[in-house]
Amino acid sequence: MSSHGWVNEAIGKIEADFQRSADTHLIRLDLPGLEGVDLYLKDESTHPTGSLKHRLARSLFLYAICNGWVDQNTPIIESSSGSTAVSEAYFARLLGLPFIAVMPRSTSVRKIRQIEFYGGRCHLVDCSSEIYAESQRLAKELNGHYMDQFTYAERATDWRGNNNIADSIFRQMKAETHPVPSWIVMSPGTGGTSATIGRYIRYQKLDTQLCVVDPEHSVFMDYFLSGDSSLTIDQGSRIEGIGRPRVEPSFIPGVIDEMRRIPDAAAIATIHWLEEILGRKAGPSTGTNLFGALQLASEMKMRGEEGSVVTLLCDSGERYLDTCYNDDWVAALMGDTCLWRKEIERLVG
Prior knowledge:
Layout lengths: L2 H18 L5 E4 L7 E7 L9 H14 L9 E4 L3 H13 L3 E6 L4 H9 L3 E5 L5 H12 L2 E2 L2 H8 L8 H8 L10 E4 L5 H12 L5 E6 L5 H7 L31 E4 L2 H15 L5 H19 L4 E7 L13 H7 L4 H10 L2
Parallel strand pairs: 2-10, 3-4, 3-6, 4-5, 7-8, 7-10, 8-9
Antiparallel strand pairs: 1-2
């Protein structure tokens, strides 16, 4: 098959997969104590690969193929803490391409198994800061393409519309009591989703503000406050999928209105509380998002403001049964979360 023939076929397969996928649900949480302030979760766990990163993986593959970086014989290499690699393994299998995920050894076993289920291979490193150089080395050695989500996430997605996540949120909110959210809350992994949402808000001339919530052991908030892009730390984030030890190229601080640091134990307490509200489990990045959203909603209520707050349910908690939903793991790594549970109850009234 000619190069153009393979490109046409590959893009056709990805577009057909998109057409088979419905949009994700927007869930309104019933919180009587926050009357007048409506809180919503955009449930990204219902994508075919189970997370928000399905959107990113689709965009990254289309971007790489259309740039001529990937053809029918190109091995795909990605540095990832889990969910992006799961989604990229899915698309690599769809196109018949080999896939290798370079990831920290601390990545949950269930995510590793999912990558392997889609035919991918996991290449584990001891420290999260090693994933970049090792991915580049493997790509060079195998004559492959390093997908590099941390660089290309913010440019692979069309932020002006075209059914991106921001466009989807605002379309789904049209019939709600407060259709233009006062706040959208997002945590940064690559920074690509917050860049897309922030740019879209400005392009559409909306009054919504973007709050980005960072976990512990992440440099994004420090960079937002200081402007120092050289910041690094030696310890990786304990909230899998978000927070980075260095400032990633896809993180765009200029589109963000406010940043908050969310304690990791608060995020874990929040997903256990959310399970009682929804009847199902969510991943820890959702806890970081939702705790920040609850703070903002509570503050709006105290000021006598009405409106809506939207955040993301990034992936299912079934991927974290051996960590965030394991009492021994939580006690050993996060400590006592009871005080944060009380704080959540205070926030929701």
